[in-house]
Amino acid sequence: MNNYLIENLPEYFKIYKKSIKNPKKFWDKIADENFVWYQRWSKVVDYDMHEAKIKWFKGAKLNITKNCIDRHLAERGHKNAIIWEPNNPDEPTQYITYNELYDRVGKMANVLRSQGIEKGDRVCIYLPMIPELAICMLACARIGAIHSVIFAGFSASAVASRVNDCEAKLLICSDGSYRGSKVLNLKSIIDEALEKTPSVQHVLVVKRTHNEVNMKEGRDLWLQPLYDAAPIENVPQIMDAEDPLFILYTSGSTGKPKGMLHTCAGYMVYSAYTFKNVFNYKENDIYWCTADIGWITGHSYILYGPLANGATTVIFEGVPTYPQPDRFWEVIEKHKVTQFYTAPTAIRSLAKESSDWVEKHDLSSLRVIGSVGEPINDEAWHWYNDHVGKKKCPIVDTWWQTETGGIMIAPVPFVTPTKPTYATLPLPGIQPVLMDEKRNEITGNQTDGSLCIRFPWPGIARTIWGDHERYKQTYFSAFPGKYFTGDGALRDEVGYYRITGRMDDVIIVSGHNLGTAPIEDSIGLHPAVAESAIVGYPHEVKGNALYGYIILKDTGESRDRENLKKEINLLISDTIGPIAKLDKIQFVQALPKTRSGKIMRRILRKIAEGDFSNFGDTSTLLNPEVIEDIKNNRIG
Ligand code: 6R9
């Protein structure tokens, strides 16, 4: 089982070449040798990149939880599947063996069934990083319900729009959550969200913080008594390869979030294969990814990828700076973590602290360290390499997306030589291509362009929930026949890739993808605001921060500017979440627009960065005179 580890560079080149020459044969063998199936597939892949129709392992039947839990019981029943590290280090750690995981998922699956949840029903999960989050996801997968985890930092209206989009029948939340020294009341956010969500019949509430909450008669139920009464035995639902596994929302260039749909077989094969190779996972390793399960990184590399490999995965409830800025290093030392996977924004913020915090801990258990979510800058890369990896652990800079399901471009540790700020080479089966402005493929090295992928891979999202046309438009229309990632990339002289950043209206702040459109929509709700444009500018810790240019209505002109700024940020916080608040707000008379009415964001970006040198071609601007005024009043 799981004997697909790439051992050295010649082998990587050999496997890569084969995987590209015959991707069907490549994935057929991996799927066949490393997973348990109720029934094999009749066709490895069926695809049409113009219509955006992709199917992997057609005809196969499986259940992902059998692969993640049941099949490990004979040999690994007493091995820890999950090590849960609480927010407060004084609270006990939970060690959940594969045997115990089997019991807990079985009970939870029976609770879901007792609530009338069936195959294909949508269940939204709004939980902090507690074991129940993982268990509820697996329980959904066990019975064939489609989970949609909503990051527990989203506001009530962001929750409502997601719940409504997927028409969830059930929602699972907790009374509250701990984040460092704060206690947040999650249930009250849910109460507000559910005022406008007709599809939700019941809410299951997990007790975590024991704070006072409202329980709505007939709708809300405490989970614990139901769970205690539920039997363990649960027969997994037999799923078709292309049955939906989960929906996960991501930002796009319009206000409506995109519900990316992942399906059972392809996602399982891809997340498991990439986990094993990118983290060099060996049987007794203790692997830790610090992402929140509410994002794709948590889905693929806290939960499904590790468990499909019978790994031990650490789930951490807290924040890097609580109780002190050495919490990450303390946890690595405590559990003898061997692989550590985090985000550049966390690295940058910890690098600002004294290096004594790292030095005082024994990190010698570490073998591989990873980065994900945004480009890792040179300084952060070196700090990570020097202080955490002690120059001995390869840094796997992993490029991928919610849409790709798993890691696409990354070094294979101990195989691919790393290079600071480069995600390096594609994994087997992945065919990146760079495209120029005329939509031609750029061949050769030392070049840059729009990053596309030529051939489907098993982990690719199959559609946007309820809106296949949008899926096709967003990813398959800019470069017909190819998947367009929305990112720009450069390829160096040896063919290594470096991701240069988003080419669309998505800004990555502290690793969170934020679309400018939803933020502008929420600012527009303010009665004094006429129009706004949001851009990102470089920020030392967050990678990017948000700069808003806002035009006031005549009636707003007399209002106190400082108050207005606070109100605008409150609105954003209430409609999207605190992560989308603006760092800088500049009130302007007008925005630079082209004759066709499009805001020229390129200029606004340059001004926000304080770079007035070269605005490029401004001849299509309708109102070039506004630039001077915006420049003069820039917030430094
Ligand atoms: C996994 C994840 C996807 C976007 C992606 C890109 C950026 C992710 C990166 C990276 C440079 C890396 N991104 N990893 N940029 N280097 N190693 O983050 O998914 O939340 O959907 O974000 O994140 O811009 O397009 P998601």
Automatic annotation (TrEMBL):
Which residue numbers delimit the Acetyl-coenzyme A synthetase N-terminal domain?
12-68
Record-stated family = Belongs to the ATP-dependent AMP-binding enzyme family.
| NCBIfam families according to UniProt | Ac_CoA_lig_AcsA, PRK00174.1
Its EC number(s): 6.2.1.1
Q: Which UniProt keywords apply?
A: Acetylation, ATP-binding, Ligase, Nucleotide-binding
What sort of enzyme, by top EC class, is this?
ligase
InterPro entries given in the database record: Ac_CoA_lig, ACAS_N, AMP-bd_C, AMP-bd_C_sf, AMP-binding_CS, AMP-dep_synth/lig_dom, ANL_N_sf
Q: Where is the AMP-dependent synthetase/ligase domain?
A: 70-463
Q: What's this protein's name?
A: Acetate--CoA ligase
Q: Where are the transmembrane segments?
A: none
Q: Which GO terms describe its molecular function?
A: acetate-CoA ligase activity; AMP binding; ATP binding
Q: Give the organism the record lists.
A: Riemerella columbipharyngis
Q: Which residues form the AMP-binding enzyme C-terminal domain?
A: 519-598
Q: Name one Pfam family in it.
A: AMP-binding
Q: Which GO terms describe its biological process?
A: acetyl-CoA biosynthetic process from acetate
